[in-house]
Amino acid sequence: MADFNFEKQNLPQKVVQADSSLDIETGRVSLQSEYVEVEGNDPILAEKIHLINDAIDEIGFTWYHAKLFCIAGCGYSIDSQMEMVQVTVRVYVDYQMLGSGFPISTEIFYAGLIAGSIVFGMGCDLIGRKLVFNSSILLTSIFGFFTGGTDNYPMYCIFMFLSSMAAGGNLATDVSVFLEYLPSRYQWMNSSMALFWGIGQTIAALISWAFIPSNSCAGPEYCPSSINRGWRYCWYVNSAICLLAALARLFFLKMDETPKHLVTTGRDAEAVEVLQKIANKYQRTMSLTLEQLESCGPIKQDYFDPSKDGYNIKALGKAMLTNLAILFQSKRVARSTILIILSWAFIGLSYSTFYNFIYVYIASHGGDTATSTYNAYRNNVLANFTGIFGPILAGFTILIRFKMFSREFVFGRRGTMIFGSLASMAILFAYTSVRTAAGDAGFSAATYFFTNVYYAALYAYTPEVFPTKARGTGVGVCLIAGRIFGAFAPVINYFGAQSGSSVPIWVCGAVIGCLSILAALMPFEPSLKRTV
């Protein structure tokens, strides 16, 4: 297999902070004071993570990282794919099993995502990244097959809950795994990896476009399973794709536990062994030794150790509370954590609510975006395909440098989030002028594009500024916030549509714009620098 060697990539040799420098020849970065603060819960651990980063930078980018980019990206794809499946088939499942009324399955789906963020997201800090990374998509696939085979609404909701729980927890792990193996000069790839989100949505939309129009009933009046099998086909095909991704993780990537997680749980020897294994396989130099790690001293013994603590609720709960406390260990770190959680909550509520309410608003103002089922799914495919390119743009914008007042600045993660949120707000407000199906298709595509610019930067920024020991917990908490608030969108849409009010659409658009303020207030900027 061809090896990857991008060591002469042209990147800026300076970054904003005077206390941090990137050496292009070696790829090493000096220990930065702001990230020492992030890891301030345990200075010994911070130094060990710094040594691990030195070793990763010394090895450089290899074929292993390229495989991990694609296979971890599949986690983004699967999460969005299964969410899109639920959205596109819900009405036909309701026709067959529920009739009409409040969309219960949507709330059950969000409940599964929330449960997954708790169990898998926080769990990966306790039991390790590898187990969650390898099992979550496999479970998503298995329960997805069962969901497609159900014949009554309660069983459909139960298996959909289990499938969404696994998919939702997977997303909390993928970005952390990739970040913890990635050389510092390639951290921009953490943003671009979100392009798989759009790929997953596009795949699900294509599958729905293929099966729903010609294999679905017209309404709840007469909807037996014999003429309404399109939604089942969607679940089966999407679950089969999930199964292929799960098998690729198990047999093609064969990922070891991340070295950074290993040192956070006192397994220094295993961490060195994992890094040496990669270096040997790709003929790279790796000078880190076990003696160097051990010379730093012992880390705090506040981590969860199954061999001593056992898998009991009390031990797990104590470890989880310890990790949650790390997210608020100082004023600056607490400020960062709160702003990130608020960002996830606001985007979770506002975007989902806006996208549901926009059609109510257009209809109440004389517009007509109605089209055939075939064209509706076609437009959905085009919009989601356009969204793939938002994260690619985000990967470039974080590298932009400019001078102002005789100082050099990096556009960075925060600048990209500010740009993405303001552009999304402008497009969403302009969306309210749409009165035709063609205009709906165009503005829908633009919305997906610019919102994914914001999402890509936020997804990458979130794990980068959380302490290593509590990284999965932090990402999990953010996903929980986004999904709890997102679960209110169907409720608002259901009752708001009946009242005819257009207030929510303007409030949600303004909230999306306010995300730029939250981004500007975030205290850390990891772009073109290395997290400890």
TrEMBL record:
GO MF annotations, alphabetized: transmembrane transporter activity
Superkingdom in the source lineage: Eukaryota
Keyword Transmembrane among UniProt keywords: yes
SUPFAM superfamilies associated with the record: MFS general substrate transporter
Bilayer topology: Multi-pass membrane protein
Keyword terms, alphabetized: Membrane, Transmembrane, Transmembrane helix, Transport
Listed transmembrane segments: 108-124, 131-147, 153-173, 194-212, 235-252, 338-362, 382-402, 414-431, 443-462, 474-497, 503-524
Cellular localisation: Membrane
Residue ranges of every copy of the Major facilitator superfamily (MFS) profile domain listed in the record: 65-528
GO CC annotations on file: membrane
InterPro entries noted in UniProt: MFS_dom, MFS_sugar_transport-like, MFS_trans_sf
Matching PANTHER family: MAJOR FACILITATOR SUPERFAMILY (MFS) PROFILE DOMAIN-CONTAINING PROTEIN, SYNAPTIC VESICLE GLYCOPROTEIN 2
The protein's name in its UniProt record: High-affinity inorganic phosphate transporter and low-affinity manganese transporter
